[in-house]
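Dear colleague,

Thank you for sharing your sequence with our group. We've completed the structure prediction you requested, and as agreed, I am returning the results in plain text so they can be pasted directly into your records. Please verify that the sequence below matches your submission; if there's any discrepancy, let me know and we will rerun it promptly.
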Amino acid sequence: MKKLIFYVAATFIVVQCSSSSDDYNFNADLETKEIRKLVLNEEVAWNNGDAKSYSVDFDENGLFTNLFGMSFTGHTAFFTRHEQLLNGAFKGSVMKQDVTSLKIIDRNVAYVETMIRVTGFPNSEPLAGIYIDEKGALNTRLLQVLKKEKNGWKIVAYHNIDIKKGVPIP
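Please find the predicted structure tokens below.
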């Protein structure tokens, strides 16, 4: 009887220790690749003038701040604003994002910061009050906070600011 109890207890412990916990299945390298893919998808969507694809990873209740410091909440507002930009002041522009910082805080939260360079505006001054450099490019710094969901990473906060004249670009 003691052997049976020992066997059952040992089996229980082994099963508990080997169960597939999310913590044990977490792969930081894979998650980092997924986040970098999200950033690349944003770039491709922007360059195709596709606000729907640009907005696909933005959370339903996400918060974003644009270059002017205006704040908006929700996927619909994010999509609408980017649709206006890609069909207006930035129509036909080319955007390049370079990741400067990417950190997975825990298995469900991460942030990514990118340096963005936008060129090819339809006119020389696309947005009043925004600094355009001597080569006609808009340079910005974008910080995105992401949360992991069942269907991938979602952007819950998006803060973009133009780099002002005289500020060195890393």
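Summary note from our side: The two ends are 71 Å apart (CA to CA).

Kind regards,
the structure core
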